[in-house]
Design goal:
It is a single chain. The chain has three domains: 1-94, Orthogonal Bundle (Arc Repressor Mutant, subunit A), CATH 1.10.10.10; 129-369, Type I PLP-dependent aspartate aminotransferase-like (Major domain) (Aspartate Aminotransferase, domain 2); 373-473, Aspartate Aminotransferase, domain 1 (Alpha-Beta Complex). Helices cover 39% and strands 13% of the residues. The protein contains 15 helices and 15 strands. The strands form three sheets. The protein has an eight-stranded mixed beta sheet with strand order 4-11-10-9-8-5-6-7, with helices on both faces. A four-stranded antiparallel beta sheet has the order 12-13-15-14, with helices on one face. Strands 1-3-2 form a three-stranded antiparallel beta sheet. The protein starts with 23 loop residues before the first helix and ends with a helix.
Length: 476
């Protein structure tokens, strides 16, 4: 007999294909699972003993026993000794086909910011791309050295020592920031560095100064860390420290972009730098320095890092390779004050370890061989030329604009819908950033377009500007 079946009062049918390749125990298990999933066997239903079922199906007792054991391991049935074996309770299925979650408003904004690469887009290097061949050689070389079988130990959660040494040496030259490698922690970019710093500080519920206008991701990160954000206005000298002291002198933290304010591009003046550092030292507050463009300052020599002036050791310096090499690396760093090094080490080891050692070591070699410094110099020359060319195009159109770091801020008439203009520009391959989106205080918000110069190659400028002004003119 090739088939056998067992039927009880619930019309449970167990069909066995004795010629099939699937073991009989697995066939029994699958039959019972289907009966449970379909509701034919309800929770609490008593099953035949494995001895009884074996007799009725004409199979060995061990076959049924194996099937029952697997069902028990997967918590489909429960054995109660003399009370028998029963179908286990199961949660009610709400939906067999759940709806895909929709991204919230914040993620939609992030997706819009990361579209591209496109003309005038902020936050990414020039379209000439990263130094692929050179970087690939360095990465390949280090992959051989640090492959999965070269060392069966976990990497240092603070980051690879070679990269930390290179960063410490580079900062002393380019940013006048003197630190030891033990103060440097490797991260997966700016957001990772901000998260690491906020975890270390643990300032839940405390006040924080935040530049307004300021970086959207920073603002959201501070909100998620449960800090109370105090918007502080920005002018040609950077963040208005006096305003912050008048309105929230008891703040526990200030997050600033002193090198080139994001998005207006102003450099924090010497007077305000000292004022900010004195406030932090006297009040016990901390300062997070977002050095997002670092040495990519196009007007003369880059201003030194705020942390280089910090005698009170209250500044946490955050840097990134996203603008200088490639955002796809997801690589950055934090320089911690000596007092916080142990705390940073503990958080890095348990909650925020450094990214792939292969990428780190490739970057270290890239820096050690001098390629990084040469790339910075080349990018500064390129960006200066592209900015000058963009300014010429804007002058030809009698536009009102100001230089804003690695962007040009194109001013718009009051009430102009800069977000709508950007949406229409994106449809034709451009991605300027709407200035109004950078403001947290609605009454301070101004309309404008931030035109990234890194992504504004000269051959495309005339056509791109023509298309952009065609869109703008519709709203004049």
């Amino acid at each position: 007999m090739n088939d056998a079946s067992y039927s009880d009062c619930l019309d449970l049918q167990i069909h066995l294909d004795r010629r099939g390749k699937l073991p009989l125990s697995e066939q029994i298990r699958m039959n019972i699972v289907r009966a449970i999933d379909s509701g034919l066997l309800a929770p609490g239903t008593r099953l035949p003993s494995w001895r009884c079922l074996a007799t009725q199906l004409g199979v060995a007792r061990g076959t049924v026993r194996t099937a029952y054991e697997r069902l028990s391991e997967s918590q489909m049935i429960e054995a109660f000794g003399a009370k028998g074996t029963r179908v286990a309770p199961r949660p009610r299925a709400v939906s067999t086909q759940p709806d895909a979650p929709r991204p919230g408003g914040f993620m939609k904004t992030i997706q819009e910011m990361n579209v591209g690469p496109a003309i005038f887009q902020l936050g990414i290097p020039a379209f000439e791309g990263p130094p692929d061949k050179i970087f690939a050689r360095a990465r390949s070389s280090n992959l051989l050295k640090t492959g999965p079988f070269s060392s069966l130990v976990y990497p240092d959660p603070r980051g690879e020592s070679r990269l930390r040494q290179e960063i410490a040496g580079y900062l002393s030259i380019s940013r006048d920031l003197h630190c030891v490698p033990e103060q440097v922690f490797i991260t997966s970019g700016y957001s990772s560095g901000l998260g690491l710093a906020l975890r270390v500080l643990g300032l839940d519920g405390k006040k924080v100064w935040m530049e307004d206008p300021g970086f959207l991701l920073t603002r959201k990160g501070l909100e998620l860390a449960r800090l109370s954000i105090v918007p502080v206005p920005v002018d040609a000298d950077g963040i208005n420290v006096g305003y912050g002291m008048e309105n929230a002198a008891d703040a526990a933290l200030a997050v600033v972009t002193p090198g080139q304010q994001a998005p207006l591009g102003s450099t924090l003046s010497s007077r305000r730098r000292l004022q900010l550092l004195e406030w932090a030292a006297s009040s016990g507050a901390w300062i997070i320095e977002d050095d997002y463009l670092g040495e990519l300052q196009l007007e003369g020599r880059a201003a030194p890092a705020l942390a280089s002036l910090d005698e009170g050791k209250r500044v946490i310096h955050i840097g990134t390779f996203s603008k200088t090499i490639n955002p796809g690396l997801r690589l950055g760093f934090v320089v911690a004050p000596p007092e916080l090094v142990n705390a940073f080490s503990e958080v890095a080891a348990t909650l925020a370890p450094a990214p792939s050692p292969v990428v780190q070591l490739a970057t270290a070699q890239f820096m050690r061989d001098g390629h990084y410094i040469r790339r910075i110099r080349r990018l500064k020359r390129l960006y200066s030329a592209q900015r000058d060319a963009l300014c010429e195009q804007l002058q030809m159109r009698d536009a009102e604009w100001i230089k804003a770091g690695l962007a040009i801020l194109l001013k718009l008439p009051d009430g102009a819908p800069d977000m709508q203009i950007v949406r229409e520009a994106m449809a034709v391959g451009m991605a300027p950033s709407p200035l109004s989106r950078w403001f947290a205080t609605p009454s301070w918000a101004l309309p404008g377009l931030l035109l990234g110069v890194a992504t504004a190659p000269e051959p495309y400028l005339a056509t791109s500007c023509h298309r952009l002004f065609e869109i703008i003119d519709q709203y004049r």
